[in-house]
Amino acid sequence: MVTIGVLALQGDVAEHVRALEKSGARTLLVRRDSELARVDGLVIPGGESTTMSQLLTSFGLFDPLGARIASGMPVYGTCAGMIVLASSVLDGRDDQRCLGALDMVVRRNAFGRQVDSYEEDLEVCGLGGAPFRAVFIRAPWVESVGAGVTVIARAGNRPDGPIVAVRRGNVMATSFHPEVGGDERIHELFVGMVEGH
Ligand code: GLN
């Protein structure tokens, strides 16, 4: 059984732990380098990307995490986690750092304020079965992607809709929160990525 870490500095950690365990993985909360060294893959949860960026730096995790991702460790970021994986952020804070694990520009809070949070049924490439009920909470969207980054879902399922899910090899990110809806297919997809690595 693979061990998947959940970055546990801030955000909705417990929901990812539950979804990953239901999907057949062992989990480990990651707050320090020694824990990062023990996992086969990592989830970066939703929360607040500016705070997560600060905490990654103050916990000394920013560079070790970048190095693990560069060496091929599978990683999945949701919402704030998507922002942390980006190569650049629009509407972020000036001191906000991101890992550059995916060549993409992300716009923070792109769908509006907390009251503009919403849900919709999304067609996600690579997921079999029915559309995925996606929950967007003060979510970012992806403004543009570089070569090699595959768009796997767009808001409204429209060809010109905002990009809300992407993947490049072992790195995946979604604007929405699959850990809250009770549908584990995206976590199962990620567990499969880690098992296949
Ligand atoms: N708006 C948050 C941020 O900028 C992300 C929200 C979320 O993760 N649900 O980090």
UniProtKB/TrEMBL annotation:
Keywords from the named record: Glutamine amidotransferase, Hydrolase, Lyase, Pyridoxal phosphate
Pfam families: SNO (PF01174)
Single Gene Ontology MF annotation: pyridoxal 5'-phosphate synthase (glutamine hydrolysing) activity
Binding site for L-glutamine: 47-49, 108, 137-138
Enzyme Commission number: 4.3.3.6, 3.5.1.2
Subunit comment: In the presence of PdxS, forms a dodecamer of heterodimers. Only shows activity in the heterodimer.
Protein name: Pyridoxal 5'-phosphate synthase subunit PdxT
Species whose genome carries this gene: Schaalia meyeri
